[in-house]
């Protein structure tokens, strides 16, 4: 069903809102990193390479980081058998390159596919870029070189997407000089979002005063930092990760995926970073949203309790801690989390998302939201305004 056919879409006076999906993904090509990396680091480029029986792998320095697969929205069950066949040394049941649709990786094709989904625009994160940051963290030049390669390609997404796709860059806070150079490039390319890890930065909290120059640079260049589920530096002790080495997603990480961004944004609020940088916006995407109502209660409650108990606040805040969250943070909310109910409890903080084309995502986001009572002409914040706030420059 195309956009104009949707029964709840008011036609007389034009559209009520421009629908922006806050979470989609573009597959990287096999050679994207090699094609866009600084030639001095060509030997560090990530790549997708087939093994001896035909399974494609994301590789770095000839190490296999994780399997590449063609996911289908809403069908996670097929992925486990695919991995089990590989463990049993059985050949794959499909050819990766032949099964990968053009709109999974090609920006122009994805922009056209938005019409099929009933969407006007979409934020597009990397696909395999979610799998390698933590494991490259000890090889910092390789880490930044591959991030920069993706970031250069983002300029292509802006151009070929013809204003309908908003690519998300990939950055680290570990080197302010490198970061500021990347932000300058991103601003010139029309890229307004960047994924960063919600984690300590070489042993220092994200709110550390030495990081203020970087937060100011984000604001100056009109780039919004975004937290997204990914294999990034962890906040939980490694002892809790008991899964076999070839597991795709650790169990504890899936259950507590909201904890890391909640800790990160709390740090930025209670230590005054958001107060010092009122123009800074933070996006939280694919890290669930159902936790937000209780979190906001605990945020204010914990602040009040510790201020009274310790006889002084942690930082001089003019507003309530939750007010900074409301002013500067926006959270993607899947349809099954019932964002209308969350909005009634927490305020208009949430963004629609499909996670297309991942298996845990959907190819029919508007129909999914409609089943929970959310339609564009009645929820401008969910379908447009909140993600537009992150994109504003």
Could you state the order of secondary-structure elements as H and E? Answer: EHEEEHHHHEHHEHEHEHHHEHHEHEHH
Largest sheet: 8 strands, parallel
What fraction, in percent, of the residue positions are helical? 25-40%
CA-to-CA gap between the ends?
A: 33 Å
Average residue pLDDT = 93
| Total number of helices | 17
Q: What is the total tally of β strands?
A: 11
What does this structure look like?
The protein is α/β, with parallel strands linked by helices and 393 residues long. The protein has 17 helices and eleven strands. The chain has helices at 32-36, 79-87, 96-99, 102-105, 107-117, 133-136, 140-160, 176-189, 212-221, 251-255, 259-270, 273-276, 292-310, 321-328, 339-346, 365-371, 380-391, and strands spanning 20-26, 47-50, 56-60, 63-67, 121-126, 165-170, 193-195, 224-228, 282-285, 329-332, 350-351. The strands form two sheets. The protein has an eight-stranded parallel β-sheet with strand order 1-5-6-7-8-9-10-11, sandwiched between helices. Strands 2-3-4 form a three-stranded antiparallel β-sheet. Helix 9 (212-221) links the parallel strand 7 and strand 8. The protein is globular. Residues 1-13 have low confidence and may be disordered.
Short synopsis of the structure:
By secondary structure, the chain is α/β, with parallel strands linked by helices.
Provide the fold topology.
Elements (H helix, E strand, L loop, with lengths): L19 E7 L5 H5 L10 E4 L5 E5 L2 E5 L11 H9 L8 H4 L2 H4 L1 H11 L3 E6 L6 H4 L3 H21 L4 E6 L5 H14 L3 E3 L16 H10 L2 E5 L22 H5 L3 H12 L2 H4 L5 E4 L6 H19 L10 H8 E4 L6 H8 L3 E2 L13 H7 L8 H12 L2
Parallel strand pairs: 1-5, 5-6, 6-7, 7-8, 8-9, 9-10, 10-11
Antiparallel strand pairs: 2-3, 3-4
Helix pairs in contact: 7-8, 8-9
């Amino acid at each position: 069903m195309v956009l104009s056919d949707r029964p709840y879409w008011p036609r007389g006076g034009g559209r009520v809102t421009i629908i922006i999906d806050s979470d989609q993904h573009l597959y990287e090509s096999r050679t994207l990193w090699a094609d866009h990396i600084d030639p001095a680091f060509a030997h560090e480029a990530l790549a997708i390479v087939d093994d001896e029986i035909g399974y494609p792998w994301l590789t770095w320095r000839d190490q296999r980081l994780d399997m590449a697969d063609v996911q289908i929205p809403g069908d996670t069950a097929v992925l486990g058998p695919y991995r089990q066949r590989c463990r049993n040394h059985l050949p794959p049941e499909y050819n990766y390159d032949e099964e990968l649709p053009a709109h999974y990786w090609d920006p122009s094709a994805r922009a056209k596919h938005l019409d099929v989904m009933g969407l006007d625009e979409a934020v597009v994160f990397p696909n395999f870029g979610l799998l390698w940051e933590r494991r490259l963290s000890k090889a910092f030049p390789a880490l930044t070189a591959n991030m920069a390669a993706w970031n250069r390609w983002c300029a292509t997404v802006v151009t070929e997407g013809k204003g309908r796709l908003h690519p998300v860059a990939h950055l680290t806070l570990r080197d302010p000089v490198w970061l500021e150079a990347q932000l300058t490039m991103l601003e010139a390319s029309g890229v307004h979002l960047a994924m960063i890890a919600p984690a300590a930065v070489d042993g220092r909290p994200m709110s550390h005063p030495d990081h203020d120059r970087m937060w100011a640079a984000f604001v100056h260049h009109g780039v919004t930092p975004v937290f997204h589920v990914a294999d990034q530096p962890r906040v939980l002790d490694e002892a809790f990760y008991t899964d076999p080495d070839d597991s795709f997603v650790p169990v504890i990480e899936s259950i507590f995926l909201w904890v890391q961004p909640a800790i990160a944004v709390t740090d930025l609020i209670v230590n005054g970073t958001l107060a010092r940088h009122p123009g800074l916006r933070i996006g939280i995407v694919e890290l669930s949203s159902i936790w937000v109502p209780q979190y906001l209660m605990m945020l204010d409650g914990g602040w009040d309790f510790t201020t009274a108990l310790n006889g002084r606040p942690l930082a001089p805040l003019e507003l309530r801690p939750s007010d900074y969250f409301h002013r500067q943070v926006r959270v993607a909310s899947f349809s099954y989390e019932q964002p209308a109910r969350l909005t009634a409890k927490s305020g208009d903080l949430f963004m629609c998302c499909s996670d297309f084309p991942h298996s845990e995502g959907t190819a029919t986001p508007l129909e999914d939201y409609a089943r929970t009572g959310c339609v564009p002409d009645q929820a401008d914040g969910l379908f447009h305004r909140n993600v537009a706030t992150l994109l504003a420059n």
